[in-house]
Design brief:
Mean pLDDT: 85
Radius of gyration: 29 Å
Distance between the termini: 88 Å
Low-confidence stretches: none
Strand content: 35-45%
Helix content: under 10%
Strand order of the largest sheet: 2-8-7-4-5
Number of helices: 1
Order of helices and strands: EEEEHEEEE
Largest sheet: 5 strands, mixed
């Protein structure tokens, strides 16, 4: 009697290599930079930022008759719209208050600038004195 032939086990296969997820990108933790803005009665100020996102606004007020001066964030995107609409495009629940001494005041706050830009309105309570500043986002080439 001869021994039954031995069989070998089928070769084992290894699992397909695993892939790692693509690295995620995160937005900077803080503001992208600072924007210097001037607000004065009967004047309009224009500036721009290189990209939308969170920026620190350094607002300087000049030539105001007296306190308080209310500073409002508005959805208007240019001075023509801001002048025509007044405070109707502004967020009245998020106002900042400047207290001029000798006509000047300064405020600093962080603000998210959208792709379309926005405007900041300033004025006294009776809207006798009013001014504005608009911030646009530069268009990349």
């Amino acid at each position: 009697m001869t021994a039954a032939p031995t069989t070998t086990a089928a070769p084992t296969t290894t699992a397909a290599p695993t892939t790692t997820a693509a690295p995620t990108t995160t937005a900077p933790a803080g503001p992208l930079g600072e924007v210097e803005i001037l607000v004065a009665p009967d004047e309009g100020f224009l500036t721009s930022v290189p990209s939308s996102g969170l920026w620190t606004m350094n607002v300087a007020g000049a030539n105001w008759a007296g306190p308080p001066v209310y500073v409002l964030i508005c959805t208007a995107t240019d001075l023509v719209i801001l002048t025509r609409t007044g405070t109707s495009t502004c967020d009245l629940s998020n106002l900042k208050v400047g207290m001029p001494a000798d006509g000047a005041f300064s405020l600093s706050f962080d603000l998210r600038i959208p792709e379309d830009g926005l405007c900041i309105a300033a004025g006294d309570q009776g809207q006798v004195e009013a001014g504005g500043a608009c911030i646009s986002v530069e268009i990349a080439d």
